[in-house]
Design goal:
mainly alpha, two-stranded antiparallel ribbon, 24 helices, 2 strands
Length: 494
């Protein structure tokens, strides 16, 4: 089935590199060194760590992995081949990131995002806001099959509404991601939802039905937590809402017609239009809407007092490529009325490329397979097998920096072990999703963590604790395993 997630696609026949000469202790050396260096770097730089120093630390981690590989008779060419394959697999993600930056730029100057904020402020309030974020993003993500599309459209608008309401952005990003990954996880149009059962050896809809047993209580708990948080939030932004609405209305031409572009983009994704094409159309529609609804803003960004062909062209191109802003005297709106275009995404792209170097070398020297095999040998009970699978998925999200490898490698390594235990393959596919798919966004240097942080403008470490659905999911799957809840046997009729 054609996937509609706008993350890079990984073929189901992804190979797994093995190196029998590599011990588990040698495989763990690069991981330990990398985690230590990253911890020190984050301690030293704080929020500025992603400005470049973390990227170089990932390269240093790759260098350590390469040294381990040299001592285990792995050629430099083999390591570079895996790095090349890893970087190649991120080509789609990089183009999408650039296009999301472009879309955000034209949607700002056209008034689409400010209009979403304008109407959102009239409907939402701090008490229900976080729970509403989960529900809204879950619906959009189920419909599109894409957590990335959800964040790039309604997610950006919800972050803007949160800032205007005075709701902490880390909380909001966590709620957005919780809802987005719930939808991504159970949508038949999501690539990971198709990939996990393919790796485990079950069919798509059996996988989705079986996954609902752990996914439903997890999202309910997340919603309840966000409702409780909302009830205890001090609505410090509510008093300024009327003034903010007034200032938005005076800064741009607010019109419900501006919702046409985002609706078209979501419909295109649902209709299985390739995401890059859908985002490009959304960007162009944003530019057209800017010329129609906000001609003075476009002219000003283009360096002219009046709109003509040259100023219109420059205004739209500036919005697509570089930092732009809608003028406003309201300090609360200044952050909401700025966008970085494609250039804003370059730091995230830089992080992804460096992470793929580390992950590629780790894969090339056989370290990923060695770590998974070692974890598989640690446990002999049924619960131990589930725990080992969860640990492998988490470890690969950290070491390989890629959500797909966190599904593919354990999926291939554990399929026989689950069968030998008499467990139906949907047990494995559910565990892969509960621990591999959703936790990728919690790792700053993972492609998913880097993407969400870049798009939402919130550091991964600031939203990770509030991404309740994501970090609770692996605990829920282990809880079900520990108490033998809905653990299907091979002899049980499906």
């Amino acid at each position: 089935m054609e996937s509609q997630d706008i993350k890079p696609r990984v073929p189901q026949d992804e190979h797994v590199v093995e190196n029998k000469e590599l011990s588990i202790w040698e495989a763990l050396i690069p991981v330990v060194v990398l985690v230590g260096m990253l911890a020190f770097n984050v301690y030293t730089y704080g929020d500025e760590a992603l400005s470049g120093s973390n990227q170089f630390i990932l390269l240093l981690g790759g260098a350590v992995a390469a040294i381990v590989g040299f001592f285990n008779k792995v050629s430099f060419d083999q390591m570079m081949e895996e790095v090349s394959e890893n970087i190649k697999s991120t080509g789609g993600a990089i183009l999408i990131l650039l296009m999301v930056g472009a879309l955000a730029g034209t949607w700002l100057i056209s008034g689409i995002i400010p209009t979403m904020i304008y109407y959102g402020l009239q409907v939402l309030n701090p008490t229900i806001f976080l729970a509403a974020c989960v529900i809204i993003c879950a619906i959009i993500s189920v419909a599109t099959g894409s957590s990335w599309t959800t964040s790039a459209t309604v997610g950006i608008a919800l972050i803007g509404i949160a800032e205007a309401l005075g709701v902490p952005l880390g909380m909001t990003a966590g709620a957005v991601i919780s809802g987005a990954y719930f939808g991504d996880k159970i949508s038949p149009m999501s690539d990971t939802t198709n990939l996990a059962p393919a790796m485990a050896g079950t069919d798509l809809f059996t996988h989705i039905r079986y996954m609902l047993y752990t996914t439903t209580p997890t999202v309910i708990v997340a919603l309840l937590v966000f409702i409780i948080i909302g009830l205890n939030l001090e609505p410090k932004g509510a008093a300024d809402t009327h003034l903010i609405l007034q200032d938005i209305d005076s800064a741009i031409n607010v019109s419900p017609w501006l919702f046409v572009a985002p609706v078209i983009v979501i419909v295109l994704i649902v209709k299985k239009t390739p995401p890059l094409i859908a985002l490009l159309i959304g960007t162009l529609l944003g530019g057209l809407a800017a010329l129609i609804f906000q001609p003075n803003i476009v002219a000003a960004i283009g360096g002219s007092e009046t709109l003509n062909f040259t100023s219109g062209y420059k205004g739209i191109m500036n919005a697509i490529t570089v930092d732009t802003a809608i003028p406003t005297e309201n300090e609360a709106l200044q952050g909401l009325f700025t966008a970085g275009g494609m250039s804003k995404m370059l730091g995230t792209i830089w992080l992804i490329l460096c992470a793929m170097v580390f992950g590629g070398i780790m894969d090339g020297i056989g370290a990923l397979t060695t770590i998974s095999k070692a974890l598989l040998k640690l446990f002999h009970t049924t619960f131990g097998l589930f725990a080992s699978t969860v640990a492998s998925c988490l470890a690969l999200n950290v070491t390989a920096s890629d959500q797909y490898l966190a599904i593919v490698v354990p999926g291939k390594m554990y399929a026989k072990a689950f069968k030998d235990k008499g467990l139906a393959p949907e047990n494995l596919s559910r565990t892969l999703e509960d621990s591999g798919t959703v936790t990728s966004v919690l790792v700053p240097w993972n492609t998913c963590g880097a993407y969400q942080s870049g798009v939402l403008g919130v550091d991964t470490l600031h939203y990770a604790g509030y991404a309740i659905f994501n970090w609770l999911s692996p605990f829920m799957t282990l809880l079900f395993a520990a108490f033998q809840i809905k653990i299907r046997q091979l002899t049980t009729a499906k």
